[in-house]
Design brief:
mainly alpha
Length: 147
């Protein structure tokens, strides 16, 4: 069975919009991205099945029945998307109550690693970056003891 062009374009738009929203910093937009991506996956799975009669024994021949596996997979995907939506909605609500906004901020550890990587880029080749990560002075070859 060849897929309908409308389905293919709709799947592409849902995937593109979902990925674009997932890359945003607002939890509300991330939530909408997950929902759009989940709907795109559901349509993609459904286009893989063939149309036909209900898969009940005795109603139609085996070649005339639709495949029940894509339908079962879509039902499972709907439940998983609902769970992810509830979790992200609870996270966004809690973040809004605590901070007054739903924007995801940078982690302090991520900022430290980026700063150390920038310092390592300024050093001559051959001086170890592991020393800088451990807190030692890489110029003198000193490795700090872990905390």
């Amino acid at each position: 069975m060849t897929p309908n062009l409308t389905y293919v374009v709709t799947i592409g738009v849902l995937f593109a919009a979902g990925v674009t929203l997932l890359l945003e910093r607002s939890l509300t937009r991330i939530l909408l991205g997950v929902i759009l991506l989940g709907n795109g996956v559901n349509l993609l799975i459904l286009t893989g099945g063939q149309a036909g009669a209900a898969p009940i024994a005795g109603l139609a021949g085996q070649e005339g029945m639709s495949d029940p596996l894509p339908q079962a997979m879509v039902l499972t995907a709907i439940v998983i998307t609902l769970g992810m939506t509830a979790f992200l909605l609870a996270m966004a609500s809690r973040t809004w109550l605590l901070t007054g906004h739903d924007e995801v901020q940078d982690d302090v550890e991520d900022r430290r690693i980026v700063r150390l990587a920038e310092q390592d880029a300024d050093l001559p080749d051959g001086i170890g970056s592991l020393n800088a990560v451990n807190g030692g002075d890489p110029r003198r070859g000193h490795v700090a003891e872990p905390p």
